[in-house]
Amino acid sequence: MSLVTLDNVTVRHNANPVLHNVNFSIQPGEIVTIVGPNGSGKSTFLRTIIGALRPNHGTVSQAPGLRIGYVPQKLHIDPTLPLTVRRFLSLPSPVNGAAAGRALEQAGAGQLMKRQMTGLSGGQFQRVLLARALLCDPQLLILDEATQGLDQPGSAAFYQQIEQLRGSLGCAILMVSHELHVVMAASDRVICLNGHICCEGAPEHVASAPEYRALFGSGTQGALALYRHEHNHSHDHSCGHDHAHDAQPASPDLNGTRT
Ligand SMILES: Nc1ncnc2c1ncn2[C@@H]1O[C@H](COP(=O)(O)OP(=O)(O)OP(=O)(O)O)[C@@H](O)[C@H]1O
After folding, report:
1. pLDDT, tens only, 162-212
2. How confident is the model at residue 253 (pLDDT cuts 50, 70, 90)?
3. Nearest residue CA, atom 6 of ligand 1?
4. CATH for 26
């Protein structure tokens, strides 16, 4: 059974159609990535799925009792506000220390519990947002441009964490990203959105689709191939071929340096 289904959904902002006749569903454990140019309706799509926006036409249905974890695009915290990670995770509802620690571990941020929110690096901050989304033990985890502002190794490490979470928690993941070559390697299905669904399918299929290339050009496909190569092999650099041009998704050291 699908976790969420959109049936012929149209959404307008101030009478302007932003999404038009969109059909979509996501299955348990699936990783789906939404790509599309600025203003193409990606955030509107996510907000419609979580129920923050009502469609003007069509229907949105959720599996009964569906638990959704949401990682926003960004979150501003007043730099003068003293707020530890532990306290942040208890907003708006209190959580016990064990649950907070478990969520931080799952997000790859186990050692950040006592840190000040305003002292975190961009990557650490996003992992804390991820931990907060995991507190409800989501069946569907939604991420809206969650790696904005991170460098490419930081983004790649973040998405590898997401892939691991799908493996360990079994949750489905729906994410929006501009970093096509990084994100697509972790996706089961990619949807190219531009007010309507232009094309969808396996990452390789979408990367070579004419609709996708019309929007993004063809440069990404080479980067995707490189990343897949790096992503799939055993990381044994002694096997004799040239890695000089491989994309290198590194594991960030959450204390601030990178390995
Ligand atoms: N609350 C709103 N009121 C009026 N117009 C809106 C509102 N939210 C979004 N829009 C408009 O709807 C269109 C789609 O916006 P949306 O944020 O969904 O796109 P996006 O693909 O997520 O963009 P980006 O990649 O820039 O984040 C844009 O033209 C935007 O200006």
Report:
1. 989 999 999 999 999 876 677 767 889 999 999 999 999 988 888 778 888
2. very low
3. 13
4. 3.40.50.300
Contacts (Cβ under 8 Å, ≥6 apart) of 2 = 25, 26, 27, 63
Give the domain extent around 17: 4-74+136-232
Inside any domain, residue 251: no
How far apart are alpha carbons 207 and 197 in whole angstroms? 14
pLDDT digits (tens, 9 = 90+) for 210-238: 888 787 776 554 444 434 434 443 333 33
Does ligand 1 come within 6 angstroms of the Cβ of 38?
yes
* Ligand 1 atom closest to 36 (CA): 21
47, part of any domain: yes
Q: What is the DSSP string of 99-164?
A: HHHHHHHHTT-GGGTTSBGGG--HHHHHHHHHHHHHTT--SEEEEESTTTT--HHHHHHHHHHHHH
| Spatial CB neighbours of 138, under 8 Å, sequence gap ≥ 6 | 67, 68, 69, 169, 171
Evaluate: CB of 43 within 6 angstroms of ligand 1. yes
Whether 13 is in the pocket of ligand 1, judged by its Cβ within 6 Å, is yes
* Residue 131 belongs to some domain of the structure: no
How far away, in angstroms, is 57 Cα from ligand 1 center?
A: 18
Residue 247 pLDDT > 50: no
What's the structural domain count of the chain? 1
For the entire predicted model, the pTM comes to 0.81
